[in-house]
Design goal:
247 residues; alpha+beta; four-stranded antiparallel sheet; 26% strand; elongated; transcription; transcription regulation
Length: 247
């Protein structure tokens, strides 16, 4: 590796003399690797300056000398490697968080109905990913509540990580905020997804618009396996149970 590459750490720390800094900047203009490493080391000099301002540093010559001393090439190279590795670890953590978020978007609450023409209950209804997934799932349980008249079908699929579910909800009017709650055989309750029901509702047989006639399809996921589930509940945010579906 050319010697110019080895000076990127010293340049970032601000310890090169004018001639050395000028030579490195000329090299930096055409070196993508050094530009990347310099970006990784951004902020090192202010950090050292902050250390130099710590109480007592002015009265302790050894500290001042150690902060101003020019590090050996081996130390500079070690600084480059350590900082670059920490930044790489941070990027990997960010990637994993993005991947996890994407998985939640796919398995979690999906848009129930896509329309053209705004939020007034009109427009052309189109199929959604949740509805398409619902159609492919063979394990389905249904129920209609005798009091609220809300009907629900929960489609389930076993996954290595637990259970993927898609809810089909009918004959529900808003405005409401609701949740799909999984109740396990051990008594634990897990909210799989939540959503809002507009004024015109979903799955209303005698509705005036096609959108209102269409059921709501909403996805969810939980860590329990299907054989660990006792039942599902659709409940409002105020705690009212709209319908229960036994697993």
């Amino acid at each position: 590796m050319p010697s110019e590459h080895e000076t990127v750490g010293a340049y970032a720390l601000g310890i090169l003399d004018d001639a050395e800094a000028t030579a490195f900047e000329a090299h930096l203009a055409g070196c993508e690797w050094c530009a990347q490493q310099l970006d990784e080391l951004a902020g090192m000099e202010p950090m050292l300056a902050a250390l130099a301002d710590l109480p007592g540093s002015g009265s302790t010559p050894a500290i001042g000398e150690s902060l101003s001393a020019k590090p050996s090439p081996r130390l500079v190279e070690k600084l480059v490697d350590e900082v670059a590795e920490k930044r790489a670890q941070k990027r990997r953590r960010s990637f994993y968080m993005i991947a996890a978020a994407a998985a939640l978007i796919i398995a979690g609450p999906l848009a129930a109905v896509a329309v053209n023409g705004g939020s007034d209950g009109g427009g052309q209804v189109t199929a959604t990913p949740a509805q398409a997934t619902f159609r492919t799932m063979s394990d389905k349980k249904s129920a209609t509540d005798a009091s609220t008249h809300v009907s629900a079908t929960v489609a389930m699929a076993r996954k290595d990580w637990g259970t993927q579910a898609v809810l089909e909800l009918k004959n529900v009017k808003g405005p409401l905020k609701c949740s799909l709650v999984l109740v396990a055989k051990n008594g634990q309750r897990v909210t799989m997804s939540s959503w809002s029901v507009p004024d015109w509702g979903y799955g209303i047989p005698d509705a005036k618009t096609e959108q209102s006639k269409q059921p709501l399809y909403i996805g969810g996921a939980a860590a329990f396996q299907p054989n660990e589930i006792d039942h599902f509940e659709v409940v409002t945010f105020e705690g009212k149970k709209l319908v229960q579906v036994d697993a």
